[in-house]
Every structure is written in C-alpha cells, then in structure tokens.
C-alpha cells in the first residue's frame, strides 16, 4: 500500500492543551522524552528500579538473538510480591486495593492486607492441588475478585496462567487448555450478565471431555446455580482456599520466567499463545500506568472497564494498578444493567478519578443519549483513557464533553496483546491532544510509519505502523511455535516489528491509527480505510455507531458497505441513506461514498465489545455465516440478514 493511498482524508483541527494544574503536578514531564532519547536502555533500567527486586539486574537488554529478547535477564523478582506484599510492608495494608461491584449490586471492599491474605491462601491451595513453578493454570472466571486473586496466586508460585475470556465457547476453551497443557482450571459456577446468572462450569466440563490432561477444576461459587460435579476432579474454592494458612513466602523468579500466555482469538486457524515474561513486562505496565494516567495512588480511584480475559485486564487491572498501590474499581456486569446509567452511577459512588474504556462502549453511551450521564455527578474524573481500537474524533469529543465536563484530558492509547503495555499515547500533563490520535510513542518506545519498502514516510503520509527497537513488555514468542512468531511479526519488514496496523503521520508528525491493514478497502484503485469511513458516518448527527466492510465488486474491486446504528430519536426516513452517502462523500470525497448503507438495531459484537466485521463481510457477500458462538447475541445476524434485500443503493 502506497503512502498516498493510505493517507487519511480526515482533517482534524481541534487541539486541547493539558489542564494547567495537572501539568504543574504531573508524574511525567517532557523531560522524560529527552532522557529516553539520550539513553533508551538507561531510561528503562531506571523504570525497572521502581520495582522491588530480590536480585537487582545488572544487564538491561540482551538482543543478541534478535528478535528473541531478554530484559533484565540476571535479575530476580516476584510479581505478586510487587503487587501486594511490598505495599503492606510499607504500611499501606489498610489502603483499599479493590472496590468490587457485582452486577446484582453486591459489593466487596478488599484492602491490600486482605488481598495479601487471600492471594497467600490461594497459592497454598494451588500448591495442595499439585501446582508447581512452571505448571500452566487455565483461568475461566467472571469479573469477580477471585479472578485477580487467582492470577496473582499463579504469579506468586511462578505458574504461568492462561486466562480465557468467560464468553468463549467450550471449543475455544479446550483449544487453549490443550495448547498450554494446563493441568488445573479455575472457574466458577457462573457469573451475572444482563440481570441473570450465566453458567461457566458446563463449558469447562465439555472442554475437559475433549482434553485428557486436566487433574483438578477449582470452582468459585458465585451464582449458586446447580452444576454437575466430579468428586475426583472438582474442588470448591471455598472448601480448599478457606482452610489454608494466610501465610505464604513468595519465591523470586528469573526476570525471563514466563508470567502468562494469552491467546489471541483469530477468526481462522489455531489461536496464537502470546507469551509474556516477568521483569520486563511488569516494568513497562507499572511505568505506563503511572505515567499515562498520572496516577496519584494516595488519592486516585482508578477504573479500567475491560475484562481480565483480555490483555487490557491483565496489564491495567491485575498488574499495572496493583504494582503502583492503586485503589481500583472492579465491575462484574454490563454498562446497561440494570439501567443505561450504571457506569456513571459507579463513577459517582466510588469517586472514580481515572476511567479507562473502549471506543465501542463510548459510542454505545452516545447512542443511549447525552441526558443519561448528565444525571450523575462525574466531577471526580480527572483523566479519561481510550483503548482497544482507533477512536473516531466525534466519539472522542463526546467523551470529553459529556463525561469529562469539557476539561478532562483524554489519553488515547495504542498497544496490543503482543506489546503487553501501552506504546503510543499522549501524556496528560504534557501533550496538546488531538481528537482521534494516539499521537506519539511513549518515552523509551521507538515507533514510526513506513512504506512498502520499509522507508519512513514523511509527515502527512501514511503506511504501516512498525516498532523499530525492542521494548521491555514485548511478547517473547508464540507459545510452542518460535517460527510462527518470526513469520507473523518479523517477516514483513526486516528488523522491524509489524503486527498489521495501518497508520498515518499528520503534518506535525503525530500518528493516527487507521485500523488493521486488512480493514483497508481497495475501491477503484484507491485504498480507503474502514476507520475513516466509519468516522465520517459517526460524525453525522443521526448516527451513533457504524461498521464498514469492503465487499467484492466486479466493477470497483471492492464496494463499501456500511451498517449503522442510529442515535436515539433518529428514524429511517426515506432519504436517510442518500443523506448519509452524501455526508461521507462531502467528508472524504466521492470515491469513499458507500455503495450500500443499512441501518440496523445492533451490530454483531463479541462479549468483549469488538465488532465482528468478518460476519458483516459474509453478509455483504451473501456467504454462509461461520461460527457465531462468541457473539453477545447471535440473533442480531438474523435481523440484519432479514433487512438486507431492500438495502442496496447504487450510484
């Protein structure tokens, strides 16, 4: 893809300087960029010293067997000690670590001292079940405190965990158990979702029938629903954990000891087990959480709305915040249960100061109406974050205005399962932010945009986002498949990491993500980003959310097909489709005008909130739908298919 063809046609002129008070007291200032540029490895060595090491490292990076990195290789530490015990030892045992809010309204408050006791008891229970350092443990839990406790207990024992999102099917779970060779599974009877219990253990039972290696299933009682039981294998959490000693001495492990395997859920082929290790990962998630959110642990209340089944929940629920001694909110349910103001009710209740969520969720809140957040006191919020996909400028502006009172800085973060921690982001006390842009690499990170021949593109041009130097929290390999690691991430551009995202630099050199390069459509010889067409559609006052795909077309190679959710109060008037097509043409040029636009009640989304564009592409090209088991609501596809025949519009 040429520089010109990936160049974004959107022109965003709005700018927002940091609030003066935040800038004055910011954790990280512009000097960090200069320090890291002068001595990148020295900079990361300094960040590693924010942690407690049993054996401090003397070597920062070993890149002699590139691209297989070793960071702080001669150092030894324990992740759980860093996230729990050291805070208690420093006199912070009474500080709240987790405010848990269950979907039904039940709550638990867990201090660092209580967290230390629970993690110790769980580590002792896992030891009783035969778990040793190096053994893999699969975790398949709802968003309850036991999920974080289980992760920390595994880290305490040096047993790599593989957390599987609770919305995944028995098939997906079995594949991950088998690939990781996990011999213990931690699950629950179920969790609460949209007002009712949602079973989890039946999927575990089904998965285990296909994988003959699991010795024990440790089951949290959350909902009280009936579950099948195997006395020789199944153990209730409350039976085994509660009778353990609350004393446990953590062992230090090598910095390169595996911490976790997290599988990326590809739509085809075998899932990739992304391997993250200990010292480098914790160094970068701890530093970025401190820097990007300007965390003041004595006074802030942090809330990341992700699920621990995704990397965001690993890095910015389980490990980043707790390593920094933060107080955080953990919420089990969905943002619209029992009402569409539930999130803002929680912000008000706990005095949340830092909120980190996804563009998909922000657009859903836009759709529900500006009046809903207006009913709640959101004045405690001082930093807002965005994660998971590029955020379109109009959603960014809505977030700032209606959630951040037109004053709160937004940090739009780019990173991936593979990178482990944030890579590109504004710093809230330094950066003049631009709606929709992740802007620049964080201090110590080397990233740029290149063309087909791996040449860095000039400002104002587009291409591929690459990372040009190793970073501490980088994936070490794909579990059990070094060659796939090389082929997937390092083969496209020699010596550079590339994981499939298109990007452009604006005239200031700031970076704008354009989404996956396989989400770039070829229309009459022009490469058009689905992200920019979606942004243009959502900038129309009647559109709350949009998903765009390219469908095979004999005339134009691909035709642009858009599926849109209308804002509350907007109706499908006779001229609406033409109005929207004209709106896109005005914003992006006639070449980007969608051939078909279909207003729909809902889009097909996984339970993590990601739009399944593959299914929309299947519909647009009249193909049979593949697996829809990971969708929140599979009936959405039937409704879309039923509307499709009348939705075509021709130029």
Task: Give an overview of the whole structure.
The chain has a domain at 524-643: ANL, C-terminal domain (GMP Synthetase, Chain A, domain 3), CATH 3.30.300. Helices cover 31% and strands 21% of the residues. The chain has 21 helices and 30 strands. The strands form nine sheets. Strands 5-4-17-16-18-19-20 form a seven-stranded mixed sheet, sandwiched between helices. 52% of the residues are buried. Residues 1-9 and 646-651 have low confidence and may be disordered.
Hey, roughly how much beta strand do the residues contain?
A: 15-25%
Strand order of the largest sheet: 5-4-17-16-18-19-20
Annotation field: number of helices: 21
Strands, count = 30
Shape estimate: globular
Instruction: Please identify which CATH superfamily of the domain at 524-643 we are dealing with.
Output: ANL, C-terminal domain
Domain AMP-dependent synthetase/ligase: 91-471
GO cellular component, one term: cytosol
Domain AMP-binding enzyme C-terminal: 532-610
Domain Acetyl-coenzyme A synthetase N-terminal: 31-83
What's the structural blueprint in terms of helices and strands?
Layout: H1 3-6, H2 20-24, H3 31-38, H4 40-48, E1 61-62, E2 70-71, E3 76-77, H5 79-92, E4 96-101, E5 107-111, H6 112-128, E6 137-140, H7 145-157, E7 161-163, H8 170-180, E8 184-188, E9 190-193, E10 196-199, H9 201-210, E11 216-220, E12 234-236, H10 237-240, E13 253-254, E14 258-264, E15 272-277, H11 279-292, E16 301-304, H12 311-323, E17 327-331, H13 342-350, E18 354-357, H14 359-368, H15 371-374, E19 383-386, H16 393-403, E20 410-412, E21 447-450, E22 462-467, E23 477-478, H17 482-489, E24 501-505, E25 511-516, E26 520-523, E27 526-529, H18 530-538, E28 543-553, E29 557-566, H19 576-588, E30 596-599, H20 613-620, H21 635-643
Parallel strand pairs: 4-17, 6-7, 6-8, 8-11, 11-12, 16-17, 16-18, 18-19, 19-20, 29-30
Antiparallel strand pairs: 1-2, 3-13, 4-5, 9-10, 14-15, 15-23, 21-22, 22-24, 24-25, 26-27, 28-29
